[in-house]
Fold this protein.
Amino acid sequence: MKTWQLGLMALLVILAGLLGFVATRPSHFMMARSVEIAAPPEKIYALVADFHEWPKWSPWDKKDPAMKKTYSGAATGVGQVYAWEGNRDVGKGRMTLLALEPGKLVRVKLEFLDPGPFTNDTHFAFIASGDKTNVFWTLEGESDGLLQKAMSLLMDRMVGPDFEAGLARMKSAAETK
């Protein structure tokens, strides 16, 4: 067998192994980040429960200050919709407020249209701890296809730093008097 044929066979074996590994991954994925903020849960909740407040802390607003944003659905509360279209760093998508528990929980349906389409759930939990609040930001969803499963393996590295930056900005906004 020639050297190039051996190389090609090795490449095919590696590719088959990688595809097999991806195919065996669970269809459900989850990633989360958290931060402790020196503010009451209600103050932080207010920054998250209204999409009009997101520019104060959202990591994606900083990545594309010229991003086109539209608000629709309910003016406030459950049913409020926020859509965006921006550069390649932020893409195009839509979020809908699904559930609100004042000072405790915000649940959002997150739809990526470009890149995508992908639909995921994200939620924010606020847990008081003395005069501070622990904020947990979680993203989870189903990865049905091979490409989606491969993407979910990279989700923590791709989106985790954005969550960390957003939580740091949220902390700064909430702790400002």
